[in-house]
Each structure stands twice: as structure tokens, then as C-alpha cells.
Amino acid sequence: MDAIKTPLSNKALEKLISRKLLDLFIRVGLIGFLVVYCYQIFKPFIGLMLWSVILAVALYPLHAFIARKMGGRQGIAATALVLAIMLSVLTPTTLLAISFADSTTEFVKHVQNGSIQLPAPAASVAGWPIVGDRLYALWLSAHNDIGSVLVKFEPRVAAVTKEMLGYAASVGTAILMFLVSLSLSGVFMAYASSGHAAATAIAKRMAGPEKGETLIILSTATIHAVAQGVIGVACIQALLLGAGFILVGIPAAGVLALLALLLCIMQVPGSLIAIPTIIYVFSTNDSTTVAVIFAVYTLAAGMIDNVLKPLMLGRGVDAPMPVILLGALGGMASSGLIGLFLGSVLLALGYQLFMAWVHGDYELDNVVDIDEQATDAKSL
User: Looking at the domain assignment, is residue 2 inside a domain?
Assistant: First the structure.
């Protein structure tokens, strides 16, 4: 009897395993289909939501301070903070964006009808070392007949014009995305407690109960560091430089301010934009006093990051400069102007998490200690 029952038991076991495997494959397939379909639906909003979360995390300390002053009213504090940022930051940024768009449009019109009139170069330009003679000859030729110079460099001018028009279009999109992201970040800040609990639960599920809270602390500290020390300083520096360009009447002031913003986010010194504008003002402005004042102001604005970064960042950006640079360039290439900000933050965050994993418990414990010290210092 035992010899007869054994083959039947094996058959039943094989049938049971087959049925369980089939059920497993069906469940995995359905879950995979659901994940892919949900991703396709949510894909257009990924960048927007990530940017909203980054803004909410970066602005939360200020929101908490305002909420304490308002008696713990989280919603009113978040609304007040969002409106204040829109008025104090978005207004000058919008003016610069409008100036950039206007400058681009005027430049294209002048290029098309050949009505660009460059000022005559000063005689001292020819005495500049290395490039003085060639620069003076080219400048003088453009002053006398800019059409011939444009014909000579027509392919390059066409490429530059196309890029400028593309950036002019992306500025409006970036401003709109910033407005929506800022509004969403206000909602996230108003419900910060439940959001933090959900993020902590997800982190504990991913990294374990012991490392989950530390993962949240590390992510928050990195976002604060990059948002304040890189993006915040770059925005302030670009606004200061752009204000000086507009007051002096430098052509394409909005274009130069936007370029200064891009370079500052990439950790390139703002003096690369400041010095050429100073040379231009000294070469074209009749008032030496105005040129000197502009030179002092522009140089100070170009180097103000050396003062602001220690104040706004405290212990410095933990991510190396190449990480910030690659994040800014890659983000801009993939997502336009808004990706410039988003890419630098996310790549720096990814770098920090990767290095924390490489160094193990020591690095994570060190981050916790640093964060606790910073909290104690703020409370004092």
C-alpha cells in the first residue's frame, strides 16, 4: 500500500507546486502591470512632485518658526510663507525673465533687419595684451558694418539665436512650474507631521527599523545643504548682478543674469560674468564715476557667495563640486531650466546616500551626531 501511495503523493505535490507557481506568476504579472501603468500616469508629474517635496523640506525650518509665532496654525503659516516667497523672490525673478525674453526678441529683430548699432571701441582696447589688436579690429568692423560681420559668422549666430529663443521659452515654463511647486510645497508643509510619519515608515521598510530614521535625517540634511548653500546663494547672486546690469543699462541684462544663475549653480565664479560687463561699461560709459561704482558693486556681487555660503550653509556642501556640476548639467539636459535645480539636489542626495552605504554605520552615526549638534546650536 505504501508503494502505491507514494507516487500519488508526489503527483499531488507537483500539482500543488504548479498551482502555487502559477498563482505567483499571475500575481507578480498583475502587480507589475499595475506598477507600470501607475508610473505612466504619474510620469508627467514626477519632476513637479519632487521639486515640491524639495522646496517643502528646504523651507520647513522657516515654516516651523512662523507657525510657532502664529500659535501652531500650520495652514496659515504655510500660506503666509508661500505668499511672502512669491512676492519677495518671484517678483524680481519674473522681471529678470521678462527682461531676458524682451532682450532676446529685440536681438532677433535687430539681427533680421540689420539695425544693430554697436558703440565704437575705445582706443585703449587695442592696447590690451594678447587679444587687443584682433578684438579692436573686430569691434571696429562690427561698429562700421555689423552686417558683414554677421554674414561672416552667420552659422554661429543662427545657432546662438536658436538657443536663446529656446531658453526664452523655457523661462516661462520654469516660472509656471515653480509657482505650482511652491503652492504644493505649502500643502506639504501644512501637513508635515503626517508626511514625515509616512516618509519614516517608507524609509524603515526600505532600510530597516534601525536605519530608517537615520536615512530621513541624512536626506533632509542634504536637501537643506544643497538648497541653501548652492541654489539659494546662486539665486541671490544672480539677482544682485541682474539688478546692477539693469540699472546701468547693459544690453541683454536678463540674458546675462540668467547666465550668471546657471554658472553660480554650477559653482563657477560669478566674476566670469561680472568682469566682461565691467570692461564694457568702462569702454562705453562717459562717466568714470558711474563706471567705478558699477565695477565695485559688480565685483562685490560676484564674490558675495564667499560670504553667504558660510552663513547659509554652516558646515558646507558635503557633495563635491563635480557632483553638483553634473547634476545641474544633466538635470538641465533632461528637464530644461527647472531640471537645473532639481538635478543638482537629487544627484547630491544620491551621492550622500551612496557614500553613507559605502561607509556603513560610521558614516550614518556621524551624520546623526552632526545633525544633533546643529539642532542644539539652533536651539541655543
Answer: no
Q: How many CA atoms lie within 13 A of 83 on its CB side?
A: 7
Amino acid at 320: P
- Give the long-range contacts of residues 19-26, CB within 8 A, separation 24 or more: none
Residue 4, domain member (yes or no): no
How many domains does one find in the chain?
1
Domain assignment present for 155: yes
Whether residue 49 lies inside any domain: the answer is yes
What range defines the domain where residue 374 resides? Answer: 15-379
Q: What is the pLDDT of residues 309-342, one digit of tens each?
A: 766 654 445 567 677 778 777 877 777 666 766 7
The pTM of this model reads 0.60
H helix runs in the chain, sequence order:
2-42, 46-69, 74-85, 91-113, 132-144, 146-152, 154-190, 192-207, 209-226, 233-248, 253-265, 271-284, 288-302, 305-313, 321-335, 337-359, 361-379
Query: What does the pLDDT read at residue 33?
Result: 92
> What average pLDDT is seen over the chain?
75
